[in-house]
Design brief:
By secondary structure, this protein is mainly α. The chain has 8 helices and no strands. It is about 75% helix and about 0% strand. It comes from Novibacillus thermophilus.
């Protein structure tokens, strides 16, 4: 089917879309937790597949894996943008009024930071370094690839495995629910 899409078959693309839309939507929605944003991400992913089907390389993995990586990458980009907007909004609100978090919130935030720091120390250094740069220094995958001089796919793999290892470690420490994969 994918060869037909690469040749420009709209019927093959339509079948491909029908086959994978729920798969892509599930990944997007579970990541961004917003239906409209998940639908937008699905649109972006399938538009990219339609416009650039040649970017899929069957030697590098299955179509499902390729779609999952594309979807997850789009989701992370959206979450980073959302985080930047939240910070801007917070600074505006904080400028208008002084909000003092409770002692419990401060203690919990500090404990969370320490747990993440400790868990980060237990994952392999190459994964730890790219996670730190991507999430704490807010560098894009492409920036990391250029800075470290590694292929973009390697950077994305290190981030994916690093997040997986971080989640496993935080689960062992009791900060992440073992079945749901979300904070307790």
């Amino acid at each position: 089917m994918f060869r037909q899409i690469q040749r420009g078959s709209q019927q093959a693309f339509s079948s491909f879309y029908d086959q994978y839309i729920s798969f892509v939507f599930r990944i997007a929605f579970n990541t961004v937790q917003d239906r409209q944003e998940a639908e937008d991400i699905c649109h972006d992913v399938f538009l990219e597949v339609f416009l650039h089907p040649e970017r899929y390389n069957p030697e590098r993995g299955s179509v499902e894996a390729w779609l999952a990586v594309k979807t997850r990458s789009r989701c992370l980009d959206r979450l980073r943008k959302r985080k930047a907007v939240c910070v801007d909004n917070w600074e505006r609100v904080a400028g208008e009024q002084i909000i003092s978090p409770s002692a419990e919130v401060l203690v919990l935030e500090r404990a969370e930071r320490e747990a993440i720091h400790n868990a980060m120390q237990d994952i392999p250094e190459p994964q730890r370094n790219v996670l730190y740069d991507a999430y704490f220094k807010e560098r894009t995958h492409r920036e990391l690839s250029e800075r470290i001089q590694l292929p973009l796919g390697t950077i994305k793999s290190r981030i994916r495995y690093g997040l997986h290892n971080l989640k496993k470690r935080l689960t062992l420490l009791g900060w992440v629910h073992p079945e749901r994969g979300e904070p307790k």
